[in-house]
Amino acid sequence: MPVFAAVDIGANSVRLKIAQLTRGRLRVVHEDREVTRLGASVFQTGLLAPEATLQRGYSVTMDRHGNVLRSSSDIELGAEISTLLAGGSKLGSRVTKVD
Q1: Which of 64, 86, 92, 94 lies most in the core, judged by the most C-beta atoms within 10 Å?
Q2: Do 38 and 55 meet the contact criterion of CB atoms below 8 Å apart?
């Protein structure tokens, strides 16, 4: 019996549905839904929610004033920087190399 799966990645959740074809009809054998809140701030800011981005394994690096670094030209050798990780934890670092 053939098995089919569908994944729906939306702005606020990801859904999975698995169905088996039996006698010409699909019968759902598994369903799952994970709330991601990727679009929590998209209507106000036009950007995906930063918290959701951090949960996916990315980080945000800022200068000592809290400005987000977007390019290596935004920072100087020896500057203090902080990196925001998922869960709100931060790492402090000093720039030792700029390419």
Answers
A1: 86
A2: no
